[in-house]
Design a protein that fits this description.
homodimer, 18 strands, globular
């Protein structure tokens, strides 16, 4: 597929230029204020009429099938929510359920300008298949933990998964370990060996809640970051999800080992986990990402909301309206670098053709004093009029364009949600 | 105008019913699961196809013309922002500018399901005219302060404004005093006398920042709430905007005097003002409202974002995922009771026909496990497919339906924003 997108305002790493962008396959192959005529065999021409072309959001932490739990149990204490609602319901999930609810998540991602995610969930082949079948990009891990069995079982399962997922288009196996508090020594050893064998950095939930950090310190005399670092989990760098409760030593360790930090502000607020120290992380030079976490604890998969909130919460936390710049957080939200994605962090020649079109005529985008600030501080999903994933137009003016029978999908999803409720 | 809206899920005070709602003029005149055929002279029939009809949002605190400052100056310290950007730019505003930028705000309100606001700004006749010309409902005050002059000038101006505004449809003069820290004794005396003479409760910015409260205590030995109460400002009840820094005595005084509290969570975060004690206020039985504040400090006029944030910030603040219920905050966001609006707090016979239609098939509204939780925790402007203000369909599928030449409006707004920038 070759696209010619013209009459566009293009958000490039060097600012906004008025011009034209072309794609060849899944890459951007031309970007210029000038329209040359040397290349005319495009499959589709798109006149943006002065609207804004931006890099798509890269959701750096999510559990996509958890759309099945959206609004399932609200305003509950974390423990009740987890043990009385989430875990029992998850026990009833089938591969087919996960496939369906991941497709539902993809519809939500695309309608909000997100085309790539760092995913962690069970039924992992089914989730990967849903991404592959919808053209969505993802790094996918199962979230290895002690319940997966011993060293050999964990290794075998990871290798099977890797082989199955790496065959699929736009998705890649990621070595995701659930968390320090669910992984004993044997599990961690298996993960570290897999990491070395396949040159895969390790991703993990990291210091999400105060309890988690305090328990770890009580048991091991050190923080989860330090403990995992000492055990070699971060020998190849890696990614920490949440990173709410970090001390200065944690941040030094993460910087030294090249561990990226992903913030999930909506989930952290809703579950009363806290606010991640983004300014400190940013000042320390740690690569940041922004994620939604699962729909069960958010409840939307909306990267506009996350980006806005990540920025504003930091101002509140530090009592400093200058704490972090909206444009810095936005850059993190579109890059995917925190989970290892390359050449996706902006619109330039050779970068992934993962993009969204923003309707600048919408009232919340006006006046056009500062388009980038409008995007972060006032922007929302309603402003996305087109989403392009890997060079394919997958969403346009409210329609999903990859053959999704959306009505049938909703029926199946609601039937599955109802069945799971009744089985409990 | 008479509307028949059928095949609807209707959010009533008693829960969601499948049925039909009819309007006559600006009121709801029929609401039932049953479609009777005794009344058929509707001007328009609307088949909602199972979508959700909800009360519209009532934005309980805003400065609509401030859309002209959207993204004008970001990530700045409050003092620099106010004195170097906001005040000088506001000095260049004309009545015509305020009229235009209020129309822009109305486009934003309508596209997000908001049909009513409690407004405070200068150039007040122009703002009122913009509301009246677009069918938007509002309580409008100028924000009286010492710069308005002495007792006689303030009184004369307020009476002129009241006479001019109360003639217009769907808008009403509100007695709005800017704030304790901008109003000396003479101003406050004029406001109190106006309040008694016209039976108008007083609205005011109240305890928004820590500095404001501390300065008041240093100067008068008491909090702004107590000081204004002692001076008689709240003798007829009234409304406090922001209410971030309140102590228990303040809350007791507000309850005793019947002062409503309006929260503006986005603005309070962005300007690092803090988080209002909504749970305490709610538990004390104080009537709550939700507002956006002006676009300069938000930067969107999006009541979904405010409602979501008001709920989740309270969970964070109190380290308690149960702190306030989403449905309680949502009820406050649609009622307008905190600024004295009556019969607008829900869909029932006799209530104002101010409503919005939510597309339940959108991915973030699925599955349909709990529609009300979806609305608050996952909902957004993208889900609003129709807005009805005072019985008129004013917005439908992205189009404004009150004769707005939207392209021309944007051109004029951008020209005005540019002119103001150049004049500084």
């Amino acid at each position: 597929m070759k696209l010619r997108i013209y009459n566009a305002k293009i958000l490039t790493p060097d600012g906004i230029i008025d011009g034209e962008l072309r794609t060849d396959g899944d890459r951007i192959c031309y970007l210029s204020p000038v329209s040359t005529l040397d290349w005319q065999d495009w499959d589709r021409e798109i006149d943006l009429k002065g609207n804004l072309l931006v890099p798509s959001f890269k959701n750096a932490h999510t559990h996509s099938p958890m759309t099945f739990l959206r609004s399932r149990a609200e305003d509950m204490l974390l423990k009740d929510w987890l043990y009385k609602q989430v875990f029992p319901a998850e026990g009833k999930l089938t591969d087919e359920d996960c496939y369906l609810f991941t497709r539902l998540a993809v519809a939500e991602y695309y309608s909000g300008g997100t085309t790539f995610a760092c995913e962690m969930y069970g039924h992992t082949e089914a989730v990967a298949a849903a991404f592959a079948d919808t053209g969505f990009g993802a790094y996918i891990g199962s979230g290895i933990f002690d319940f997966d069995g011993g060293y050999d079982e964990i290794t075998k399962r990871a290798e099977e998964l890797k082989a199955a997922i790496d065959k699929l288009p736009r998705v890649k196996y990621a070595l995701a370990m659930h968390a320090q508090y669910t992984c004993g020594d044997e599990t961690i050893r298996a993960v570290c060996d897999l990491s070395k064998k396949y040159s895969l950095p390790v991703m993990t939930h990291l210091s999400e809640t105060k309890d988690e950090v305090e328990s770890c310190k009580a048991q091991y005399g050190m923080s989860p970051v330090k403990l995992l670092a000492e055990k070699g989990v971060f020998d190849l760098g890696g990614t920490g999800f949440h990173c709410v409760h970090l001390d200065d030593e944690d941040i030094r360790i993460m910087k030294k080992l090249g561990v990226g930090a992903v913030t999930c502000p909506c989930s952290n607020l809703k579950l009363a986990s806290g606010i991640a120290p983004l300014k400190k992380l940013n000042d320390a030079g740690i690569v940041l990402g922004v994620g939604t976490d699962g729909a069960a604890s958010n409840n939307a998969l909306d990267m506009f909301r996350e980006t806005y909130l990540a920025t504003c919460l930091q101002k509140y936390l530090l009592d400093d309206a200058v704490a972090v710049k909206a444009t810095d957080i936005y850059a993190s939200a579109v890059s995917g670098a925190a989970f290892g994605l390359e050449k996706a962090d902006g619109l330039y020649i050779g970068a992934l053709a993962d993009m969204a079109v923003i309707d600048l005529s919408a009232p919340n985008m006006q006046p056009l004093t500062d388009v980038r600030s409008n995007l972060v501080y006032a922007g929302g999903k309603q402003n996305v009029v087109m989403t392009i994933a890997g060079g394919r137009v997958v969403y346009e003016n409210g329609e999903l364009l990859y053959g999704e029978d959306y009505g049938a999908l909703l029926e199946k999803c609601n039937a599955a949600a109802e069945r799971i409720k009744n089985e409990l």
